[in-house]
Structures
1.
Amino acid sequence: MKKQIDKDYHLHIFHAKQCDPKKCTGKKMARFDLARIFDKVQKIPRGSILLDPMAKQALSPADKNEQNITVLDCSWETVEEVFPQLMRLRLQHRALPYLVATNPVNFGRPFKLTSVEAFAAALYILGNKKQAENILSKFNWGHVFLDMNKEPLEDYSKAKDSNEIIKIQDEYM
């Protein structure tokens, strides 16, 4: 029996230049060559999964065949203004299910994830736990995210589709 090898996803960040550069997880990921940063919307790979908190469909293991995952790195105060600008692109908008942030700015707050936490959650749900652990390893608080959210992430990673993700999420909310 062959051992299944996790495929690495290509991680992309559309950087809106609104965050504190010292606290920006996206910029740190780029410095470690873990993600590519774009400052132009047109550079986002077409068909990419865009992690969008306002998407009508939840990310699920059914999305695992896509190779590219994109996050928008912007201030939470302007997210409702910025995401609609991306609607005209051919991207697969997906919302992450209920998870709790462990970053120093939003510790303990549900849904208020940094770029690296969002990527790690997506990777875990899509079945690449090693890549999720790797990107979080660059942050001294990174392991806490997986520890604190282990049970829901495990459940989400076993779901078959978006509808099942929503049912599982309801159990945690």
2.
Amino acid sequence: MPQKDPNAIATNRKARHEFHIEETFEAGIVLKGTEIKAIRAGRVNLKDSFARVSKGEVYVHNMHISEYAQGNQFNHEPTRARKLLLNRKEINQLIGQTQQKGYSLVPLKMYIKNGVAKLLIGVGRGKKKYDKREDLKQKDMKRDVERALKDY
């Protein structure tokens, strides 16, 4: 079994199945007070989320952060667009890469580093159906080899 990352709060396992990830970037996130509390409680879902560059800024959409249980009327909206904090050089690089046909920005993992929430985003090219089948075939063969070596 793959090793689970100890400091990862949420991972997007479907992203590596759906995309060929070519490059990754670490980005900070602009959050409200109750959002960081919900993230530390592990109430994050990256499944259907995506990132988009608009007006020279990078935003992540559809990232679901559940409402904080002890919050009051100032609780946050769960799926609002959140701004990602990247350097201008990195944003320009992302703009150039995502303008190519078939490339998109995919959130891969959320974690806390030095007390600050970070999001690992990847530049990915969508896989075709035959690519996905080939990956599953490789994974099955690897699993069979490991099982045979274990039994030996």
3.
Amino acid sequence: MADDAHAPAGRAGARATLAKRRADVATMFDHVAERYDLANDVLSLGQDRAWRRAVLEAVGARPGERVLDLAAGTGTSSEPFAAAGATVVPTDLSLGMLRVGKQRRPALSFVAADALQLPYADASFDAVTISFGLRNVEDTQAALAEMRRVTRPGGRLVVCEFSAPVWAPFRVVYTEYLMAALPRIARAVSSNPAAYVYLAESIRAWPDQVHLAERIGAAGWRDVAWRNLTGGVVALHRAVR
């Protein structure tokens, strides 16, 4: 993608490119923070709630366990882990998202950090999870390796990410929705609709279920498996340290 498609940081139309430079990604999410949860609910037709429940079940957090929730944004994905009795550490690159999250969920201990350089000791979490964030990291393999580093032996990884619908006719419709309808709807519900053009492009460029599983295994995780949600629109990958 040409650089002239990238809006400079600080403008209301800030967006990243598929180069996924960390500063650009952070700035883009800063600009969508205020209405991010609402936009997700509308654009997913309410399916994001079911996806979060599936992540909670897959992680299986127990009281007393430590859970790292990466790309936690405003903490919507983190709250259920705290409610289950686990110690959850919501972590995100975007200060704008974290500020909104702290205002809405003051009980959570938010941390600003880069997934490629986590400020945590080796083997310090029982589970690591990332929902709709791995796709936006500059170096997927380095991030998966870093997640493994901070997970204790026998600990779990759960990655929830957009994927490839398994029914071919629906896959065509879904792609058309991503590239045409999604940005138009975003103009009505998002504070930075330009960001959703990038998000649609990044979903199209993301590896399918099999290839993501291969990447997770290549980072040293074992027993990699996945299940499709909403017909493969989203895939839930699980692995063990």
